[in-house]
Amino acid sequence: MAAKKKSISRKSPIVQQGVAQLKNIPSGYPGFLSIIKERIAQARIRASLSVNRELIKLYWYIGKMIVERQEREGWGKSIVERLAIDLQREFPDMQGFSSGNIWRMRALYVSYFEQSQILAQPVRELTSVILPQAVAEIPWGHNVTLLEKLKNTNERLWYAEQTIENGWSRNVLIHQIESGLYKRQGKAITNFPKTLLSPQSDLAQQLIKDPYTFDFLSIRERANERDLEKSLVEHLKEFLIELGVGFAFVGQQYHLEVGGQDYYIDLLFYHTRLHCYIVIELKVTEFQPEFAGKMTFYLSAVDDILCQSNDQPSIGIILCKSKNKLVVEYALRNTSKPIGVAVYRLTTSLPKNLKGKLPTIEELKTELTKTSPENKKDTKRK
To answer: Domain for residue 24, yes or no?
Structure first.
């Protein structure tokens, strides 16, 4: 009689043992798992950055080789077209070797040539090229945006560094370039050097722009302060992008009780990098000296009521429709609290090609009058 075959479990001993252990999870396992998951996530980010860095280095190297051959051997523009065809044939599974993209690789090298440092190694080695670090750290699409939208190399590098620091997407980068952030950052009139210790004063100065661009708002120029405040809160995401990294929204019309009386701050934020409260007051008029006095009062109250022992002194930002530089400087000169004054603009300026071509208010009124129901009735009667 044939012996019965032993039934063999499809699960390996290791798997069975693992399943058994899941019934009695050690108390420290969740924390252990959390640490492992965090390390894996960090490794994935580093791997992604490493792949991007190597790709940008490769593009830089290709652009460098094209420039050198064109200068040394007189190669013409047709070499780029031929190179694109050959590379696409050789590496069909790789994207990025179109003729247009290869021209961008050449532009990448030419644009940052002055910032590059070439080591004394054979030119054929990729490691012989060192390009600006910020350029290597941002995605290729971001680099293409910088190449196509900006001509100044220092400005490109500044936006590249800001992209890394703030984690901007490509769309946010485009918005910041089009809004002229490079020329606005750190331009507000402040008394920070006298009221804050270094490096807090330097960091705070770079925090404030002038002017602020609120072109994401659809409100009229003559809107009152409450309308402006309400619209900014309704578009909080766009407002936070314009304010910059580190701003955490605390409240609108934030209530403070001082001496048995009620006071309300327009907008209150906490800055996670400066470790301080940021008080923002909105004014739809030109800056007036008394604005500084009111802001000083608010900052004193916030420092006493809200601040903890590890918080830095609170900072005030007064946003006005316009300002006179000398008046602002006089108003802040002897103020002991850190205050900055900047203006805001609701819409970008009208493109030059449209100036003089749009109808005036009077012309619009005339056209509306012609097409009104009353005028149509009068015309029929006649």
So the answer is: no
Cβ contact 112:143 at 8 Å: no
Residue 6 belongs to some domain of the structure: no
**What pTM value is reported for the model?**
0.68
pLDDT of residue 72: 80
Strands 189-190 and 339-345, bridge-based pairing: antiparallel
Residue among 241, 246, 230, 319 at smallest CA distance from 279? 319
Domain of residue 294 covers 182-345
| pLDDT score of 45 | 66
Helix extents (H) in the chain: 13-21, 29-73, 78-90, 99-111, 133-137, 140-149, 153-166, 170-178, 181-184, 192-195, 200-207, 225-234, 236-243, 289-305, 325-333, 361-370, 373-381
Between 26 and 377, the higher pLDDT residue: 26
Q: Give CA–CA dist 172/162, Å, rounded.
A: 11
On whether both 225 and 289 belong to a single domain, the answer is: yes
